[in-house]
Amino acid sequence: MKRRTFLQALNLGIASATLYNGDIFGTTLTSFPNFSDREKELDYHRIQEIKFSNVQLKYPRLVGKNARLDLHGYGPNVEICVIRTDQGAMGWASLRGSKRDAESIASDMLGKKVSEVFAVNSGISEDRYIPFDIALHDLAGVILQKPVYQLLGREKPFITDYYSGMIYFDDLEPKDKPAGIDRILEECKYDYGVGYRQFKLKIGRGHKWMPFKEGLQRDIEVTNAVAEAFPDCRILVDGNNGFSVDQFIQYLKGIPTVDLFWIEEPFHETVVDYKKLRSYVRSEGISTLLADGEADPDPVLLRQLFEQKLLDVHLTDIEGLGFTNWRKLMPELKQLGAQASPHAWGSLLKTYYTAHLAGGLGNTVTIEGVTSTSDDVDFSGYKVSNGKLIPPATAGFGIPLLKKV
Question: Contact, 394 vs 359, CB < 8 A?
Answer without folding.
Answer: no
